[in-house]
Every structure is written in C-alpha cells, then in structure tokens.
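Subject: sequence -> structure tokens, single chain

Hey, anyone have a minute? Need the predicted structure for the following. Not urgent.
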Amino acid sequence: MIVLDTDIVSNLRRKKPHPSLLRWIGEIGWDELRTTSFTVMEIQIGIERAKTTDPVVADEVSKWLQGLIDVGQPQVLSFDVDAAMLYGRMHETPALRNFLTTPQGSRKAKTGADLAIAAIAIANDATLATGNIGDFLEIHAHFPLPGLYNPLSEDWHVNPQASLGHRR
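Reply:
Had a minute. Here:
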C-alpha cells in the first residue's frame, strides 16, 4: 500500500500533471494507492482560502475533490486509534515541534498534517509518496516510515525492504 501526500494528490489536478507521476501511477495501479483524511483536510483548507480570492477556482477544486472522494481512487484512510496514538507521541517529540508551531508573520497556520499523514502511513505499514521529502525525512529520523518515495523525481529515500528491521 502506498499513501499519497497532499502535494502528490494536488499535482493530479494540474492541467498537465507531472509525467513521471502519471507513468508511476500507471505502473502501480490505483488499487495500491491511498491518501488520508488529512490530505482531504489540507485541500479543503485551500478551497476555503480561495473562496475569498477566487471563488471560481474554489468551486472547481471543491468539485474536483468531491469527485475524487466519490470515485474512491485513491481510497481515503482515516485517522484511526493507532495513528492517533502515534501522532500523540510525535506531538510530544521536541524535535518535531516545528510541524506544529506557526512562525511569527507566516501567512499559513501550521496544521500538523505532515505528522498526521506520517502517522497514518506508519500505522498502516504503508510507503509514503511525496515530493516534500525533507519534512518526511525529518519525521523518519524519529519515527521510521515503512518507505518514502518521490514519484516526481523517481527516487527512493527510504527503501521499504531496508526499513523492515528499523521500525518501532
């Protein structure tokens, strides 16, 4: 199972999604792909922000998101008890506080979504696919991910086979 991070799901909405991403999805197939309830939340936050600046785009993205959910490809994983317990541990890890604290003057509030997405992936023993490698490598240093892949650059950053003996 592979969990798609928000940046990867959002890339699929572009007029021209990244060619490596499309090729990779074609090879993997939708049956192996999931996303998370936190990705849905992050996209909904973007929709709500766009309503004030560009209601037409907000409506288009809202319809796209609803279509994605209705079709069920990728399936959406919930934030279950195992993920919640893991997230609680992550929340109290001092080195990961930067995922929760919004820097002064920042336009966007931190949601802790990357921690939650990582917790869901770990709880489901799933590889995480993202273009946002740096943040997830930081999380991986404290809470080992089952796998970490960037389908945009086609690079493995945490090989699923190599991480089998490294999990908590």
